[in-house]
Amino acid sequence: MVMKEEEISNRKRKIPRHRKSRTQKSSSNPKDSDDHQVQVSKKIDEDEEISKGTSRSSAFLDKMRARLSGGHFRMINEKLYTCTGSEALNYFKEDRTLFNKYHTGYQEQMSHWPEQPINIIITWLKDRRPSLLVADFGCGDARLARNVKNKVFSFDLVSNHPSVIACDMSNTPLNSQSIDVAVFCLSLMGTNFPNYLQEAYRVLKPSGWLLIAEVKSRFDPNTGGADPDTFSKAICELGFTSVSKDFSNKMFLLLYFKKKVQ
User: Fold this and answer.
1) DSSP 165-206
2) What angle do CA 177, 181, 186 make, to 5 degrees?
3) Does residue 182 contact residue 152 with C-beta atoms inside 8 Å?
4) Rounded distance, CA 138 to CA 158, Å?
5) Can you give the residue ranges of every domain in the chain?
6) Which residue pairs from 161-169 have beta carbons closer than 8 angstroms and sit at least 24 positions apart in sequence?
7) What's the topology of domain 117-259?
8) CB atoms within 10 A of CB 219
């Protein structure tokens, strides 16, 4: 069927023009685009401020926890230096959480030391026969036993691991003259610490080694500490011979003795 020219003309006039999309309309207005970018920028800034605030809050809480942990450590540390070994044993038996608090604070203190005395002792043992039997007096987390091939008897006031024997270090279950190396790494604490050294003498074989690592400030006569030579002489009077002294570290000293052959 053929349309009349007039109908064709009318239909052409009724065909709608294509509308611009909203996106095109929006992008054609620079002011609207700038406002949107400003809002996005503000949102990013706000999110960054919230993130910074959360980070600052977290850092503050960590700092407060460290102070609290340090306070617990100093309090318990003072207690251990001013009581006997048996009193310290009962102290931790009454509240086992105190032992964990003490060692948490201890680890925090040690993290600031440039070198750990236990690592030097580990190296010393690795340079010797793995058949040597070792007694670690005041072992803490038994790090020595976990890092050498030697058989290590680990003693402390509380046992948080099956390999650790909880006891008063002046009275261990070891047989007399059964040990090749006795170690005291920052553990000569308590008013009766000479009894610990006597116990080490009892369990050591003739010519057995006694290794002592202690905080250097304890052996500074200028600040009320013991004279290291006097201390060494007192240990020799228990039946030991002084082999060497290492004062090279600014935080601690190391003393090496051997049990005299009777």
Assistant:
1) EES-TTS-SPPTT-EEEEEEES---STTHHHHHHHHHHHEEE
2) 125
3) no
4) 10
5) 117-259
6) 164/139, 166/89, 167/89, 168/85, 168/86, 168/88, 168/89, 169/85, 169/137, 169/138, 169/196, 169/199
7) Rossmann fold (3.40.50)
8) 21
> Which contacts (CB < 8 Å, 24+ apart) does range 114-120 have?
114/251, 115/249, 115/251, 117/185, 117/186, 117/213, 117/249, 117/252, 117/254, 118/143, 118/144, 118/185, 118/213, 120/213, 120/246, 120/254
Pairing of strands 252-259, 204-215: antiparallel
**Edge-to-edge strand ranges of the sheet holding 134-137:** 164-166, 152-156, 134-137, 179-185, 204-215, 252-259, 240-246
Q: How many whole angstroms separate alpha carbon 103 and alpha carbon 157?
A: 12
- What are the tokens at 185? 């790494």
Other CB atoms within a 10 A radius of the CB of residue 51 amount to 10
Compute mean pLDDT per 10 residues along the chain, 262 residues long, and list them: 46 47 47 60 62 55 46 77 86 84 82 92 98 96 96 94 92 97 94 95 98 91 86 96 95 96 86
Residues 208, 211, 215: CA angle, nearest 5 degrees: 165
Residue 131 CA to residue 214 CA, distance in Å, equals 26
Residue 211, φ and ψ in degrees, nearest 5 = -115, 125
**Residue 74, CA distances (Å) to 88, 105, 119 in order:** 15, 8, 24
Tokens linked to 12: 């052409």
What the block records as the tokens of 49 is: 């401020």
Tokens read off for 260: 């005299």
Measure the N-to-C terminal CA separation of the chain; round to a whole number of Å: 134
pLDDT at residue 5, as a whole number: 47
Contacts of 236 (CB under 8 A, 6+ apart): 242, 257
Amino acid at 240: F
At 249 the pLDDT is: 93
